Amino acid sequence: xxxxxxxxxxxxxxxxxxxxxxxxxxxxxxxxxxxxxxxxxxxxxxxxxxxxxxxxxxxxxxxxxxxxxxxxxxxxxxxxxxxxxxxxxxxxxxxxxxxxxxxxxxxxxxxxxxxxxxxxxxxxxxxxxxxxxxxxxxxxxxxxxxxxxxxxxxxxxxxxxxxxxxxxxxxxxxxxxxxxxxxxxxxxxxxxxxxxxxxxxxxxxxxxxxxxxxxxxxxxxxxxxxxxxxxxxxxxxxxxxxxxxxxxxxxxxxxxxxxxxxxxxxxxx
Length: 269
Prior knowledge:
The structure is a single chain. By secondary structure, this protein is of the alpha+beta class. The chain has an eight-stranded antiparallel beta sheet with strand order 13-12-11-8-7-6-3-18. It has a seven-stranded antiparallel beta sheet with strand order 14-1-2-15-16-17-19. It has one domain: 4-Layer Sandwich (Penicillin V Acylase, Chain A).
């Protein structure tokens, strides 16, 4: 039962995300630019549970944020697959590696048919994008598209229902009511808002992104007293690596002995 929102402040967009799923845990994967099919990819970071090629969310060094949210659908809602098909979560990684703006993300995603793997029990998903130009995009294949530049004070929110549906979850209305107050949102307050969307025994992590600064913050297992801060550009300079959530729960001394370079410049507060 995921929730995501982006609000435009004077300094740019701030994005809050609650990831809810049937299992806890995850990995934070950092991938610097590399050569692929004759072009250089865009360095990025993503969070996954099913492997580096199937992330649920991420941000790249151009400041583009991409996230996937499940939809309540039936097996029959898988459309016909064309020759140019890609796994839906693989598409999220593909976009992070190649798109720098919401416009570019939309151009790429429309070139493919998405395979949701409904026959294996996976849900259909929709996408949420945000960039440094204060643009927000919502994409549900063949159902709904929105690509809009937000003015200061405006926001967009998405949950596990189509953007074409009216709000029906209590957490949706709770978050909407807070955002409608139009109080200035900083990173701490954004995480406080995200915490209002947590689902007991379901929320695996909560995150806050600042696309313009290529910065993000993470809380794990509904522990909002401990926040982890990541500077994407600094992290990417260390090469390709991943950090398991379990590693984040260990203290700095233990991590130092393990020589985990991904932890060196990680701020916790």
